[in-house]
Design a protein that fits this description.
single chain; eight-stranded mixed beta sheet; alpha+beta
Length: 629
């Protein structure tokens, strides 16, 4: 219903006027009084909106506007996912799309689980931390539903330049949401009293939030001061996890809170938050006499907010909560107070047990939220600049630090590199990065130098053809090598001028995208060089063959064989040889470099032989004169 006043509806809910909330929200009438305050409630209807017979004809649309969805989802999605829902940050909203285009319902839906007249279920995704209607997971319109088919005029996505391994293991969002402009809360602690300004209610002061940069965030204060529409811009790179066989960008929530452990049970209970708030409020009114142990919990990180991290602080919180529960006469037979940090349940500052969690979780008691909104344009996606966007030393995709635990025994955050969170081998990650940053550029440089060497060799043959059996002057014989050296100097100059190089030759992205063709060409060139060296060896009957010539024959044979074997492993993708397959990508590129290097050396060796052959050629002796005597 366009124009529905969600704010007025919510006010009625706060007043416990549930019966009349929809009346006020739809502007059919106004309400005075409050059930919550035990005031009599009166309703005054807007008679202009009613027909003479008492019926109404409201402005109801078949597909709700985005505002109808965001009225509920906007603010929570800021905290959970840093969602902005703005054309500024989302290519789909910029194109005029609506929520229901991807989250259809009723007759607009195609999934049989939600399709049909009067079916009031919207298409939903699959959130790792969500347990609401899991039977309807993935009933929304997915990325591939549109971008593989052109549905609704969507551009058909072409990823022909990517090895299939990427699309098989990486979700679309991972590359197409390379960063977020609005920070969510990555850490949610509910164990200390938050004194930050503008937090509207005492209950919310029990929550302390930290962002993906692990710095304190006054989220409720921001929400109260700025509102949803004026969120601050704070860029960050999403963390990645493996979920159901693919890598997704997510917000892995870390949590810290006081709990109650029941003897013989693995599940935990939690004290009433209002009681914990009252404990802190009472302590703050008289720190020396009311729960004095809480005074040991101080700000160790220098951000103005106390946090529970050191062993003595954990003990202080456990003792204080236990005392508070005794004060409110909470039955504690067979129970004990604990402090929970992620998957660790602390019975004291130095003793804890670990609770089982899923691979994509940091805590079995906190959510994991996938990022699916605020999608960037394709040219801004990770990989748009080539393989080195990810496969380079120190790249954020593999090497950005991810939070393991909020604090160690010294009160410092415990982190690990992203590749470890993804279960990848560090040696393979390093090998691949070095290959993309060093080996591949060297390979492409050798591809430019090959023609220079060919100029020297072919030029020598041309000179020999022109002069035939006559002696070739040294100056003339030097012309092809000099031209080749000049061309090589030009190549080096171009390599040092990347913009000019990309203007004159195919770009690095183009070469990466057509790497299979590059492989075939290089392998064929290497095969020709191998056959040439073999021919030379056979022509000499194996005698008088230089050590360098024999070495090139062996190197070419070995590198071509290694490249062929690595290529086969890449194509087959044998499951139990996954690590070897990943290494094969780099082995293949190294083999190509060796092949081209050997080809260049072989060509230059033959150029040197041309000079040697010419040096050994002497002018034909003059024919004897006929004796006329």
């Amino acid at each position: 219903m366009p124009g529905y006043d969600l704010a007025q509806r919510n006010k009625q809910l706060v007043a416990l006027n549930f019966r009349w909330a929809a009346t006020v929200g739809s502007k059919l009438g106004s309400v005075k009084g409050s059930i919550e305050k035990e005031e009599p409630v009166t309703v005054t209807y807007n008679k202009e909106l009613f027909n003479p017979d008492g019926t109404i004809e409201p402005h109801i649309v078949r597909e709700p506007r985005n505002e109808a969805c965001l009225g509920c989802h906007a603010q929570p999605s800021w905290k959970k996912r840093g969602a902005n829902f703005s054309p500024r940050t989302d290519v789909h909203l910029r194109a005029g799309m609506r929520c229901v285009d991807c989250h259809p319902a009723g007759s607009s839906a195609t999934d049989p689980r939600i399709a049909g007249k009067e079916e009031h279920q919207f298409g939903k995704g699959d959130d790792p931390g969500g347990l609401v209607r899991n039977d309807l997971d993935d009933t929304l319109v997915s990325c591939t539903d549109c971008h593989d088919t052109g549905r609704s005029g969507a551009p058909v996505a072409k990823h022909s330049w990517l090895p299939p391994l990427h699309l098989e293991t990486i979700a679309c969002q991972t590359c197409h949401i390379p960063e977020r402009l609005v920070m969510p809360a990555e850490v949610q602690a509910s164990d200390v009293f938050n004194t930050a300004p503008k937090i509207p209610s005492p209950g919310k002061r029990l929550w302390t939030f930290y962002g993906p940069n692990w710095e304190f965030r006054n989220h409720y204060g921001y929400l109260n001061m700025m509102g949803y529409d004026d969120k601050p811009t704070q860029r960050f790179r999403p963390k990645l996890v493996r979920y159901k066989g693919k890598i997704y960008p997510v917000n892995q929530i870390h949590s810290a809170w006081p709990g109650i452990e029941v003897e013989g049970e693995t599940a935990l209970m939690q004290p009433k938050m209002s009681d914990v708030v009252q404990m802190w409020t009472t302590h703050r009114s008289d720190p020396e006499n009311n729960y004095p142990e809480l005074a040991k919990i101080v700000d160790d990180m220098g951000d103005g907010v106390p946090e529970v991290n050191r062993p003595e602080e954990i003990d202080a919180l456990i003792a204080s909560v236990a005392q508070m529960l005794a004060d409110v006469k909470y039955p504690m037979e067979g129970k004990r107070v604990v402090w929970v940090m992620d998957d660790r349940v602390y019975r004291s500052g130095t003793e804890y047990r670990v609770v089982e969690k899923r691979d994509w979780e940091t805590s079995p008691f906190a959510n994991v939220h996938k990022y699916s909104h605020d999608v960037y344009p394709a040219r801004a996606a990770i990989g748009a600049n080539g393989c080195a966007d990810c496969h380079s030393p120190g790249s954020e995709f593999f090497h950005s630090p991810t939070l393991v635990y909020l604090f160690d025994e010294g009160g410092k955050p415990v982190v690990e590199p992203q590749y470890r969170r993804l279960g990848l081998n560090s040696n393979i990650v390093t090998l691949t990065a070095c290959c993309q940053v060093y080996v591949k550029p060297f390979l492409y440089a050798l591809m430019l130098l090959i023609p220079c060497a060919v100029i020297a060799l072919a030029g020598g043959f041309v000179v020999q053809w022109v002069f035939g059996k006559r002696r070739i002057p040294l100056v003339v014989h030097l012309i092809p090598p000099v031209i080749a050296v000049g061309a090589a100097v030009g190549v080096v100059f171009l390599i040092r001028q990347p913009a000019l190089l990309e203007y004159m030759f195919p770009t690095r992205v183009w070469l990466d995208a057509n790497h299979f063709a590059v492989i075939i060409v290089v392998m064929l060139v290497g095969l020709v060089a191998l056959l040439w060296e073999l021919r030379q060896w056979l022509a000499d009957h194996g005698e008088g063959r230089s050590l360098l010539g024999m070495a090139m024959l062996v190197v070419l044979l070995a590198s071509l064989a290694a490249g062929a074997l690595a290529g086969v492993l890449v194509l087959l993708k044998i499951p139990f040889l996954d690590t070897l397959t990943r290494a094969s990508y780099s082995v293949l590129d190294v083999a190509l470099v060796v092949v081209l290097g050997a080809v260049i050396v072989s060509i230059l060796h033959n150029v040197a032989r041309q000079f040697g052959n010419q040096a050994g050629t002497s002018p034909a002796p003059p024919e004897p004169k006929e004796d006329t005597c």
